Amino acid sequence: MLLFGSSGIVKRTDNNRHFRDLRKNGSVWVDHDLDKTLISLHTHQRAFLDKRERILRTWGRHVPHLLTFVGSLPPAKEIEKKGQKNEITNLDQTVELGANIDGYTVLWKKVLKSYMFLCEHLIDTYEWFMRADDDLFLVTYNLANALREFDPEQVHYLGQRMSYKEQEYASGGAGYVFSRGLMKAMQPGNTRWENCLSVDPKDDKFWKGAERYGKPEDVYMATCIDKHIGHKMQSISGFQGMSASYRHPQYSEFEWLKQRESPVITFHYVTREQMYQMYTQFY
């Protein structure tokens, strides 16, 4: 496990649900077209043992580099219990960011801190940084194909275009991608993420109406980037913030997703059953 703090990285190895154990299926291919891409999975304590594990047993198996960010881990007894039943993948590549930022209304703080961590430790290792929710389904090879069109050393902010009070932003649920060029522009010592942690890029009037959600993380990131480097997001077909529950009358299960003109990169609001069903279709 990786701990976030001023002292840097401290690494500890832990091997600690009703899941389909796909790990027993033998060798799994890894999408090496994403060798220079880091998937940042954001989850919270209550979902860590379930939703994170679901991803690691489906599309997460094909990702070369996946790092989980959580406010704080579940109690040790819960982890040990799952470990005894072989119901949790080891906890390597997990970063705790602080229990006080584990709720949805402060997700924006968690995500900002995760970007500060990435800029401090991994900015020279990866070319692309993708944020993923714990109920997102990712098609790795379609993501790799989409990223080939862009230069990672340039400033890029990619995803599904949304709008809030005339502020364009990339849907957090659909997942979005930052280039190394953007991360370097926003890293400490430059125009920076930590400034947005202490100084809101917008006033209270802008956030009025969003109180239920705190400050929506995806909107907040867009305002932060816009304020400091004046860069707007770029929309890519294939990132979907909608649910995958739609059923096409001509196709069974999720076969209809393959027939889309724009290849599927992500879907959001994916349930446990859908995660496995879609996995059998795309992998």
From TrEMBL:
Keywords, comma-separated and alphabetical: Glycosyltransferase, Membrane, Nucleotide-binding, Signal-anchor, Transferase, Transmembrane, Transmembrane helix
Pfam family, one: Fringe
Native source organism of the sequence: Vitrella brassicaformis (strain CCMP3155)
One GO cellular component term: membrane
Broad EC category: transferase
Keyword presence, Membrane: yes
Family the UniProt entry places it in: Belongs to the glycosyltransferase 31 family. Beta3-Gal-T subfamily.
Organism taxonomic ancestry: Eukaryota, Sar, Alveolata, Colpodellida, Vitrellaceae
GO MF, one example: glycoprotein-N-acetylgalactosamine 3-beta-galactosyltransferase activity
InterPro entries per the UniProt record, alphabetical: C1GALT1/C1GALT1_chp1 (IPR026050), Fringe-like_glycosylTrfase (IPR003378)
Gene3D superfamilies assigned: 3.90.550.50
Keyword Iron carried by entry: no
Domain Fringe-like glycosyltransferase: 34-239
Identification of the protein by name: N-acetylgalactosaminide beta-1,3-galactosyltransferase
